[in-house]
Amino acid sequence: MTSLKSLRKCGRSDQRCGATLVLVVLLLVVILGVAAFAVDFGRMQLVRSQLQTAVDAGALAGSLQLKQDPTDVDAAQAAARDFVARNRVGFLVTVPTDAISVDVGGWDSSTQTFDAQAASRDAISVYATQSNEPFIFAQIFGQTSFSIPRQSVAVAGEAKLEIIMVLDLSSSMWDQGRIEALQNAAPVFVNVMEQSANEDRIGVMGYGVRKGTYDPASQGHTGVVYTATPAAQFPAGYDYASDWVGVLEGPLTTDFNYLRNVPLAPTSLLAGKYGGGTPIGAAIRDGAHYLIGAARPGTSKVMVLMSDGYANKPESDASGYALQMANYAALNRVAIYTISLGDSADVSLMTQIAGAARGKHFDATGSGGGDLTTLLSDAFRNVANEISRTTIVK
User: Fold this and answer.
1) Going by C-beta distance under 8 Å and a sequence separation of 6 or more, which residues neighbour residue 3?
2) Which pLDDT score is estimated for 13?
3) Omega into 314 within 30° of 0, i.e. cis?
4) I want to staple 150 with a disulfide (CB 3.0 to 4.6 A). Which of 21, 51, 172, 359 is the partner?
5) What is the distance between the alpha carbons of residues 170 and 179, in angstroms, rounded to a whole number?
6) Cα separations (Å) of 107 from 63, 117, 190?
7) Which residues of the chain are in CATH 3.40.50.410 domains?
8) How confident is the model over 241-253, as pLDDT tens digits?
9) Per-residue model confidence as pLDDT tens digits over 117-145
10) Is the pTM of this model over 0.85?
11) Where are the beta strands (DSSP E) in 222-298?
12) DSSP H or E run through 388
């Protein structure tokens, strides 16, 4: 009853009620405007993201084609356009062919710029615009559509790679699912490298074993104990005849099916396989020495070193010897990319090794959450993308 009286009174004499109604209507208009802006802004961001994915895919595809044949610019441009067109972008689904521009040129890493007139033809630039994408709510305010431009530049390396995967097969790999993570993740590296189609070769070396304590043949294994490194590279004052060495599980090859099915098969990647410790220095030394002797002329030498623990051989100065061998690798132009696996890994040492040998360290310790298989797969994938040099730079 009181409310009805108040309403009647308001309708008769209180003009503030009318003003309030006008204010509410204005606020509703503002709220609707903000909501419309939010929805359409979100659509613009979605289209921008989809188009960036499309031009990234085009740049990578074009650079891979360029990597296969640097003289066939037309094929590289065609591959780039094709991959842009394969991606869904906005309501219009695909980007029109005439809205895609592809240039082949050079990338200046010092200035971070693409030069279409450069003498070096190692980079590809893809520029695309998705136009006439309709607004949903902004049409109320007279804005009917929008356009989004995006660009991507990818660099394709020219040198073929000689890669040795140096993997920790010590007994500690039994812990916390580490060996299972390695068994599942190691083939990921090969898969990614295979996609680059650059005639790269990959080999596999495990560590560590003490000389004279492990015979692969008698164990039904296919590896070969690596004893080719000269005595001068072994720890000073150490007995060369009984030092720790690596095991060449698979020689450098372009037969990636062989790598997946033999040296990287679960039956080959076994924790405690050699009954040895964690001689990281010996692993670097033997892996580097093998690459130095086996690499093809004109190729780049790369080591992918994985460890789940701390260097413990030689007992006197295991970490110091590992760094000494990292410098030995660097002097022989062997770049080392390191992966720390599990929470017991010596992240500091692995980071220093990568720094000394012009490489990069990747963390799969689990400190950021996630299961080890996923973390190690991501690490191997990131290493492969890093060393293949077919990367998005802009």
Assistant:
1) none
2) 47
3) yes
4) 51
5) 10
6) 12, 10, 27
7) 161-392
8) 889 999 999 999 9
9) 887 777 899 999 988 777 766 666 677 77
10) no
11) 224-225, 244-253
12) helix 372-388
pLDDT band at 387; cut points 50, 70, 90:
confident
| 29 three-state secondary structure | helix
| Alpha carbons 106 and 121: distance in angstroms, whole number | 5
* Cross-sheet strand order for the sheet of 391-392: 113-115, 100-108, 123-134, 145-155, 391-392
Three-state DSSP at 316 gives coil
Burial code (b: 16+ CB inside 10 Å, e: under 16) for 244-279 equals bbbbbbbbbeeebeebeebbbeeebbbbebbebbbb
Give yes or no for a contact between 228 and 183, defined as CB atoms under 8 angstroms apart.
no
Q: Could you count the other beta carbons within 10 Å of the beta carbon of residue 47?
A: 20
Placement of tokens 């296919």 in the chain: 222
CA distance 126 to 80: 7
d(CA 215, CA 217): 6
Q: Would you state the pLDDT for residue 393?
A: 61
Residue with the larger pLDDT of the pair 169 and 50: 169
Distance CA 326, CA 318 (A): 12
How far apart CA 170 and CA 182 sit, in angstroms, is 12
> Counting beta carbons within 10 angstroms of the beta carbon of residue 59, is it exposed (0 to 12), middle (13 to 18) or buried (19 or more)?
buried
Quote the tokens at residue 147. Answer: 């356009």
CATH topology of domain 161-392: Rossmann fold (3.40.50)
- Per-residue confidence (pLDDT) for residue 369, from 0 to 100: 47
Segment 180-189, tens digit of pLDDT: 999 999 999 9
Radius of gyration of the chain from its Cα atoms, rounded to whole angstroms = 30
Rounded CA-CA distance 167/89 in Å is: 42
Question: Quick one: tokens of 387?
Answer: 């060393």
pLDDT at 1 over 50: no
